[in-house]
Amino acid sequence: MTTDIVALDIAELTQAFDAGKTTSATATNTYLDRIANQNGALNAFITVMADAARQDASASDKRRAEGKALGPLDGIPIALKDNIDVAGVPTTGGIEAYRRSVPEKDADVVRRLREAGAVILGKLNMHEAAHGATTANDAFGYCQNPHKPGFTPGGSSGGSGAALAAGLCAGALGTDTLGSVRIPASFCGIAGLKPTYGLVSTRGVMPLSYALDHVGPMARSCEDLTVMLSVLAGFDADDPAGRHGPTDFSSALNTSSSLTGLTLGYFSDLNRINGDTVDPAMSMAYAKSLDRLRDLGATLEPVTWDGYDPAVVRPKALLLIEADLANIHADALDSNPDGFTPTFRAGIDFGLAQSAPKLAKAMRIIEQVRPVARRLFASVDALVTPTTPVPAFSFDAAMPKTITTFTAFANYAGCPALSVPMGKTEDGLPLGLQVVTPKREEATALRIGSAFENSLKD
Predict the structure, then answer these.
(1) Which of 53, 281, 362, 374 suits a disulfide with 316, CB 3.0-4.6 Å?
(2) 380 contacts 344 by C-beta, under 8 angstroms
(3) Total structural domains in the chain?
C-alpha cells in the first residue's frame, strides 16, 4: 500500500479516499514514514509536523465518514516552503537568525489549505532568504536532487521540488520571485505554477521582493496544480499586492487534449535569447516538444522579445531585491549579524549602497517589460520556452548567471507561468518546458501543460 499511495496523484488519492480504498491517516503515515527514512539523505524538510499532521488526517477521515468532506484537497498531505507562516511553528526562511522565530498566525494560503481540509506535513528547506537558485543552505544543510545526489534541486524552493520528486508529499507550496517555483520544478521533474501577480496572497510569507514575489503550487501533474490553485486563489484585501482574478480553473481540464485553435510563440534561436550556450540536451528536448505541440493541433509562431534584454533587466531586479532585503531584515541584521551568511550580507550591503534615483530607475526599467508582454500576447495565446537553459548541476559547479533568463520575464510582467517535464538528459536529469500566458490566463497555461503531459503518456 505504501508504494500505491505514493504513486497516486492528488486526484487519484481523493478518489481512493472516497472509494474507501485507503484513508488520509494511512496516506499521512505513509508519507511521514518516507520522510523519516529518506529525509536524512535528501534534506528536504526543515521541520516535520508529525503529530499535528496525524490529528488533521484523523479529522479528515471523520468528516469523510460523515459525508462532510470539504473538497478535493481534504485529507491530502501537503508540505510548505519554510518562508510560509504556520502558527506555532518556526518560519526560518532558511536563515539561521530566524531558527526560533515562531509566528502567531497562519499565512493566508495556509488558512485556505486548512479550510479545504489539507494535511500539513511540515516545512521545507530553501535557499537562504529565498535569495538564490540552488538551495545550497549553509544553516540547514544542502538539499539534494533526488535524481542525482550532490546536484542541486534548484531554488529557492528546492525543498519543495525535492520532496515531491522523492515521494515525501502529495503537493507542496513554493514561492517565486525570478523563477523559484519553476526552476526546481524543472530540475526535479515535477510541475510548478507561478500564478498572476496578486492572484494568490503573499500575506504571512517572508518577503524577498515586494514587487516580484508570488506563491505557487507544486505537484506531480497539471491536474493537481489545478486542484491546488482553485483553493489558493482568491482576493485578499489585506494583501497590498492583492488582485481580483479567476478562482475556478476547471476549464483547463474539461477540454479535449487537442490544442487546435491556440497559437503558441516560440524562440527559434535559444542561444541568442540566453546570451550564453544553452545545454544541447535542453535544445533538443525543446525542439521535440515544439513538434509534439504541433501534433496536438497548436499553431507555432516564431517570436522575439523586442524591447526586452534579460541581461539588462536582471541586475536591476537583483538591485531591487537586495534593497528590499536590507529593509526586511534590518532588525535581525543589527541584532544577529552572524545569523546570516557572508554572501547574503554582501548582497544586503550592495542594496544599502544604492541611491534612491538608481533604485527608481531600476524599477522603471523592470516596468518596461510589461508592454513587451502585451505586444507579445497580442499575437500569440502563450509563449513556450525551456524553463531553464541547463539541467541540474553539481553543487561544486558555478551557478550559471543566466539561470533565470527564461523564467524572470513572467515575474517582471506579472504573468502566469507553468513548468512541466519535457524529458531527461542521457544521464537521467529532468528537463522542463515553460508555458507563459497573459495575466489571469492560468487556465490556458494549465490546458496546454495538461495536454502536453498526457501526450507523453501515449
Answers:
(1) 362
(2) no
(3) 1
